[in-house]
Amino acid sequence: MTWNQWGLFLALGVSASGCGRMLDMAPQSPASFWEPGLGVTTLWDRLDQEVQGDHHLVDTGPLSLFELVDYALQHSPVTKQSWMEARKQLAAYGESLSANYPELTLSSQFSRQKGTFVEGGGAVSYYSTVIGPDVNLSYTFWDFGRRSLQQKTALYSFYAAGYQHNSQIEGLLQQVLKNYYDFVYSMHLTEAKREDVYSSKKMLEAANIKWASGIVSLSDVMQARSQYLQTKIGLTKQEIVQETEKAALAETVGLPAYLDFEVVPFKEPKRPWRPSKELDHWIQTALHQRSDLLSKMSIWQSQIKQAEEKRAEYGPTLTGNLQSGKYWFNQGAEETTVHWSAEVKLSWSLFDGFSKRYALQKAQEEAIGRKLDVDQTWLQVTQEVTVAYKKLQRADEILFEARECVKASEVEFEAALLKYQEGVQSILDLISAQKTLADARALKSSALRDGYAAWTDLLHAVGALSGCEGRDLCGAIDS
Asked: Cα separation of 434 and 111, whole Å?
């Protein structure tokens, strides 16, 4: 063997052994963990740098609702994806417009050929060389409307993507607002639990004083202590819920859940929540503004145009083609003038095995399916508008009753505590009054959250959450 042959065999052996060791990179068994190989650490470093980003917002103090919404719109991956999809559909529409213009192509060739021919009883070899450019101009004069319908299909697809982007923005706004309400509601509920702990502590102190004086038995103290410990446990659990709601808000906004931040809590409304207009007005507003409904309608129209395009394929097509160029040959020979050719062609497919027929039927059935999507979305929109409207109608009444319930429960608890201290009521009556007060405080916090949530749901249901009404809502909460 020569050295070259030995080198070839050695290279093949090294390559084969390397391919065999590639299986070692896989998990060793169904029950074993996979360990990444070299170079993956760099990938994690890049991911960490890109995902963490700049979170200077949390260093500016308590965040208002406007700041939370603004940060979410700039950093949410959801809206970025829908934005890129809208840009992609716009590019597809621009691509469809290129059919309105002629196509100009420049080509050049170089060919070298050896051939043989017979002359005088013998074979004679020859060489042939051709070199030169060509320019080709082609244009579709008429295609029975297919070109225009393709452009309308792409245009409606772009409309659908644009409206879907709007829908994603409004969905993000609604989710941010709801997570904000839930977090602030948990803050209010935590504060209410602290007040419950304070109330139950006063109750325990009163029981201890009476027991020390020999007025009541140790059973009263144990019951009061049990109630006090239960309220402390309830406070601890509520603090865990508050941290969970805070993490959910951070994720929606686009912040890592481990970051510590505060928010400006919502206050009791300065004006009634009751909607100023009738239900029919809100439903008609949703018909013209609800982005997901408009997106479904655009998809339906796009599918209709696609069905019309399939029908137009039954018609003929008239095209034109103009080609011109100049060639050089062997030994410096060349064409004396440029060569050219012109062609006008009318083509009409008369039979294709019923392919066009079934393609048309398929497109028509898909258009019917998209219309059913529109109908179903409209029913869903009317249901959401109606439910949110009814909830908002009762929100003021519920909040007023919750306020009165807290006032009455506070008076009841103080009276029960006084009567217990005087020996008129038992410890069970005092515990019952304390529980009633705790429930009333939780009810008030819930009424505040539900009222703002109902107003948010109504604006989202009619497609007005990203408009001036949504900004007024955020301003009312932040004020």
From this structure: 100
